[in-house]
Each structure stands twice: as structure tokens, then as C-alpha cells.
Amino acid sequence: MENSLLAIPKEKKLKPAFVLALLVHLALLVFLWIGVSWQSETGDTVEAEVWDIKVREAAPRAAGEQSELAAAEQAELQAQEESAPPPPAPAVKEATPEPKVTARPDIALEQEKKKAEKKAAEDRKKAEAKQRADEARAQREEQVRLKKEAEQASRKQKAEAAASQKRAKALLDQEARRIAGGGSGGGKGKGSGGGGTRTTGPTGTGGSGTAARSTGPGTADAAYIAKVRTKIKNNTSFNASSAIMGNPPVIYDVELLPDGTLRNIRKRKSSGIPGFDEAVLRAIEKSAPYPKDKTGRVPSRFSVTHKPKD
């Protein structure tokens, strides 16, 4: 039975089927023509009927012919389906990456240049601010230093003035005691007066005393005065400031005992600088005892002149 269904029918059996198929196609064409004509007349809707050539309605055939024809058509359809290539798989669309937005080279260089200029300006401002702060701090420190030095100089000057007054008072007291002792000695006996008494107190300041110091015996010569002036200068401790106007001298008259120790110191002329006058006075005291002159004796008196900038 299977062999009879799959067998190709003979040519004489296909003629009625061919005629029937032709009739069906003619009928289909007629219907299509009628449909097209009707559509052109109405213009509203389009209707089409599709006829499947597989479905055939015709005069009843013999049961054997119909089964053979159906088996042949089924075999042909299966062969077409098997031989038809599979539908291609849909292509997978690859996602295209978004293009990166890159800055133009000249714009990037301009931005870098602006950043560098901004940073340089900030650094310059910081350096200027630091310099101003350092200068202000140095100025404050200098003012504090100058103030301290001025205070120290003022205290030193006051101390020197007090010491000078104290020494002057001591010399005055000593001179008063010497005068009192000399008067009592002169009343007691001949030749026991002040000429033979050793004292470091001040001598009188009358005209006769001054003349004796300048022209009397025992006055130091120029060579001796130059020698002792150098010694006194080396012992003088004083820093001459640039604020001192000119180079004013101080003059001291010095009286010595025979052993070279001091008997009296009198300031004949002040330099106008109390600190310098006091420094020279201390140097005269520090230089004692004084040496002998070329005759082998110590001069009884000499005058010394000293300047702050010498």
C-alpha cells in the first residue's frame, strides 16, 4: 500500500488533473478580474481572495486517484522543506563605543599655561607677604634692641654720675680733714705744717696754687706728659658714638706724691660728655702709680688732655 502511494502516477492519469488545475486557475483569474473591476468602481475597500491550489474542489474522483495525488504532493512538500536552507540567524549588532571627546592640543596648552601663571602669581604673593612679615619682625627687634641699649646707657650714665658725685664728696671730705689737721699741726710747732704731710686730697684752687702747678718746680716736662698720656689712653674704656658732634677734649690736672701715687685730680675742662669724662677719670686712677721722669724723681704735677675720638 505504501509503495502504491509513493509511486509516481502514470502520465495518462495526470491529464484530468491538469485540466482540472487549468480550470481552477482560469476561475481564479476571473475572480481576480472581477475583484479589480469592482474595486475600481467603488474605490472604498480592497478585497482579495487567495486560493490554495492544494485545495481542489472538483467532481468526485475515484478514491484511488485522490489518495495517490495527495501522497505525491505530500512527498514533494516534505522534499522541499528538507532541501530548503535554514533561515539565517539574525546578525548580532555590536554596540559601537561612543567617541571620546578630546581637547584640542592648543586649548590644553593654553589651560596649562594659565594654571602655571596662576600658581606663579600665588607663590609670588606668598613670598612678598613673607618678606614683609620678616622685615616688620626685624624692625620690631631692632627697635627693642635700640630701646634696651638706650636704657642701659641711661642707667650706666646715671651710675657713673652717682659714682663721680660720690668720689667728689669723698675728696671734699678728705680735703676738709686735711685742712683741719694742717691747721692744728701748724699751731703745735715750727716746720710741722702741711708741707711735710702726705695726702691724696685736693689742693687749693687759688691763684698761687695754679701758678705753682704750671711754672713751679716739680712740673712734668713734655716727654713725661706724652708718656703718661699714652698710658692713660690705653686704660680708657669708652666707645665713641657717631652721634658725637666734633671731638671735644677733656683736661685734667693731676697731682702726684713722691712715690707716684695720686694726690689730687681736678677737672679743668669738661668735654661735655659725662660718660667720656668719667672714663678718663677712671683711666687716670687706674694708671697709678706713675713712673719717674728722666731725673729719677716723680713729678709733683702734670696736665693731661684726652679726646673721645683719638
From TrEMBL:
Transmembrane segments: 17-36
SUPFAM superfamilies: TolA/TonB C-terminal domain
GO BP term (any one): bacteriocin transport
Protein name according to UniProt: Protein TolA
Metal-binding as UniProt keyword: no
Disordered, as annotated region: 62-219, 290-310
Native source species: Oxalobacter formigenes OXCC13
Gly residues: bias regions: 180-209
Gene: tolA
Record flagged with keyword Transmembrane helix: yes
Keywords from the named record: Membrane, Transmembrane, Transmembrane helix
Compartments in which it is found: Membrane
